[in-house]
Amino acid sequence: MTTLDTLPPLSRAEIRDVDWASLAPDEGKRLRALGLDAGARVAVAHRGVFMGKDPIALIIGRTTVAVRRAHARAMTVEVL
């Protein structure tokens, strides 16, 4: 298993765990509202072009959302 921020574009994964303690409460609430929680299947659509490769565009179901790399780093995933 690895963290979501390390996956290359077009990779698919299932979120196994989220380190909610490493995120601010309002950030965690937003991510849960977007469906980013344990058990969710995601795909990396693309990464930003800036030096930190931020943000990361994720596909969740039929929705595409952008998350910060720091948020993706808090998510442990299993590559599918």
TrEMBL record:
SMART domains: FeoA. InterPro entries: Fe-transptr_FeoA-like (IPR007167), FeoA_core_dom (IPR038157), Transcriptional_repressor_C (IPR008988). Residues 2-79 form the Ferrous iron transporter FeoA-like domain. SUPFAM superfamilies: C-terminal domain of transcriptional repressors (SSF50037). Pfam families: FeoA. The keyword Iron applies. Keywords: Iron. GO terms for molecular function: transition metal ion binding. This is Iron transporter.
